[in-house]
Amino acid sequence: MKMKKEQCNKILQFICINLDENIHSKRCAEIKKHIEECTDCSAYLHTLKQTIAFYRSYPVPPLSKKEKEKIFKKAKSIR
């Protein structure tokens, strides 16, 4: 079971870091197969999709130029 959890953690980390990955890549195919076979990762992905849909259902608040720059700077520092 420990091996499975380690694999799941690697999968979830990859999803979070590489959301812009080419969906036709070999790595994405491996992840899709794992998610189809793993109930924990499947549930995580389902919850992630629900969370994204929830946030998309609300209008984006207007931001000042300074606030936008701050957000983009922070996003770039994460990668």
How would you explain this protein's 3D organization?
α2 (26-37) packs across α3 (39-56). The longest helix is centred in the middle third of the chain and has 18 residues, at 39-56. The chain starts with a helix and ends with a helix. The chain has 79 residues and is mainly alpha-helical. The mean pLDDT is 80. The chain has helices spanning 2-17, 26-37, 39-56, 65-78. The protein has four helices and no strands. It is elongated.
Write the layout of secondary structure elements.
Layout: H1 2-17, H2 26-37, H3 39-56, H4 65-78
Helix pairs in contact: 2-3
Describe what is shown at a glance.
The protein is mostly helical and 79 residues long.
Order of helices and strands: HHHH
Largest sheet composition: none
Helix content: over 70%
Class by SSE composition: mainly alpha
Range of strand content: under 5%
What distance separates the N and C termini? 31 Å
Brief descriptors of the model:
79 residues; mainly alpha; 4 helices; 76% helix; elongated
